[in-house]
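Why does residue order matter? Because the sequence determines the fold. Keep that principle in mind as you read this record.
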Amino acid sequence: MYIIIGPELANLLYNSFMMIKDFFIDAVKTAVNAAIKDNKLGSLSDINGINFICEVPKNPEFGDFSVNVSSLARNAKMAPPLIAKAVCECIEPVDFSVNTAAGFINFKLEENFLKKIVTEIISEGENYGKINLGNGKKVNIEYVSANPTGPFHIGHGRWAALGSSLAEILKFTGHSVYQEFYINDAGNQINKLAMSLELRVKELAGKKVEWPEDAYRGEYLIDCAKRYVESGSDESYGEFAKKDMLRLQKELLEKFNTHFDCFFSETTLYKNHEVEKCIEALNQAGKLYEKDGAVWFRSTDYTDDQDRVLKKSDGTNTYLTADIAYHKNKFDRGFEHLINIWGADHHGYIPRMRASIDALGYDSNNLEVLLGQLVNIIQNGETVRMGKRKKMVTLDELVDEVGVDATRFWMLIRSIDTTLDFDVDLAKQKNDQNPVFYVQYAHARCCSILRRATENKLDTESGEELPPFIQKEELDSLLLVPKISGLYEEDDVKAKDAARRLILRLEEFKSAVIGASKNRAPYLLCSYAINLANDFHHFYNFTRVLSDNKELTKSRLLVVASVRNVLALALKLLKVSAPEKM
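Structure:
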């Protein structure tokens, strides 16, 4: 029995919810069931519980994709090569060829298949690769959340880039996303900020002051002190400094293309009595006890390694107390899933937060904490030291030095669980050694090709102006309703291989989006964009896009437009600009 992969099944591929790998896995499953029905697979009666994986063969001569059916050998009591052969016999390919090697079934796409991928990309536009993984789930992403005690350091930039990009990715994959910045504006750090500003104001007045070791001595407070004096404000030093620092932080976040739906103040939890209500709720649940004059939370009833103090013997609350009330507040506002982005030094904080969520009657499985490693700034081959109490390299300074796009892309280029070495000198370069320039240049080159296609040509010998390769109206129509006659000439092997490689890479965007969403990993899109840019530059080097062969020109312009579209989508999800000229 042959299972014909005809138009109805083949067309399942050409939508934004199915990837090529899924298509071939389904094809193999269908063929296996047919082979079982024809008694070609020995004692195998069904494939329940068996998962097939579609991969790219290491040797491209085998094909573009490969599915291993060796897992059927045990139940079928047959050798894997015989199983592969039997399954292969039940597939009659359409727009692809099929062969076997050992226990693998290999598929190689033909030109028609590739053309349909390009057609899908152009037709889907900004919806290409969009998929509903979240089903509208309400997700709260809280990130950066710095104390308003000074400028953002470089680590804050990494969290800002990660959080804002992850928010875009989750929206693109069907989640309802709310971005939140938690302002830690209650507690001793604000008192220290007030004291530090007061000392700076006194210095401006020419007075000699003594600086405590724990004061904030950054030069940024000199400017804050000047603004305080010039404003003639009657606010307390703490209130003025807090507002001034928060204003500067918000301005930088906007500049850094990071937009929050809410800046949530810790002090509101106290003003609205939410902290004391939270303590009472834990007490009613039997999760508190007194010891040594302090109030303790029984967090060891859950996953924590020791109980935690909520109220100290002097009557003041710990940082944990307000944090518990804050997380309760988020759940009470109707968020179904919480994502917090913290520094790696907060690892030990996770069990106590999970414990408090469970103790309050919520599900701690709905709290997800992403821990990120630090950023090392490399300049002139040396690591730059950073710190709030001394002269520091701030995020603002870095953005001014290398630009928003370069800073964002470099901050996202590695997984957050690895330390990031940010090479300032490399990030400033305008060549293919700088990955963000390389990717943006590929997009700009696509735009340039599409522009040149509709511009009048110049005969280099006679100087005569000639008609364009294609009229703008015709190109616009082609991009609206894409029709491809052919992608390459069969005897042009290098151009053919470059086109195949490029189009297969374009289709990978779908899996890159899914991986970035499920794994909370925008760096996968950085890697994808770099690889796509590389494949496009390779394609351009071996392919004459604009030629006297109008039909071939039109087809190749559609490929170029596909690259432009997908690069723009990837950069948009990273919140990095896609320039049309460079």
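The mean pLDDT is 92.
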